[in-house]
């Protein structure tokens, strides 16, 4: 019988929680504002982790700058992560912009526009 949560899934969730705290508390760059770590995908051998982030209230250009800053701070964040998690190998971090929240906001805007145009019966 397979487990409901594989080890890589549990590790990804723990890395997500710890990275969110590290970014909030330790990263001092002004280009990194309010960041949401939406997902972490860890490779099977735990050597690499793809981290998907969204900057709240940021346009596309600011989000890309934030992603570049976080990729520049990946070594610093990996070192901080190694102090917080008990893993033999702490994964190398690669940050990606997650457009899911942008798409959701755009859909909400479109729905609001349609509701405003709807003639009353």
TrEMBL record:
Coiled coil: none annotated. GO terms for molecular function: ribosomal small subunit binding. It is found in: Cytoplasm. One of its GO terms (cellular component) is cytosol. InterPro entries: KH_dom-like_a/b (IPR015946), RbfA (IPR000238), RbfA_dom_sf (IPR023799), Ribosome-bd_factorA_CS (IPR020053). Pfam families: RBFA. It comes from the Bacteria. GO terms for biological process: maturation of SSU-rRNA. SUPFAM superfamilies: Ribosome-binding factor A, RbfA (SSF89919). The keyword Cytoplasm applies. Its main location: cytoplasm. The keyword Cytoplasm applies. Keywords: Cytoplasm, Ribosome biogenesis. One of several proteins that assist in the late maturation steps of the functional core of the 30S ribosomal subunit. Associates with free 30S ribosomal subunits (but not with 30S subunits that are part of 70S ribosomes or polysomes). Required for efficient processing of 16S rRNA. May interact with the 5'-terminal helix region of 16S rRNA. Monomer. Binds 30S ribosomal subunits, but not 50S ribosomal subunits or 70S ribosomes. Belongs to the RbfA family. This is Ribosome-binding factor A. It comes from Spiribacter salilacus. The gene is rbfA.
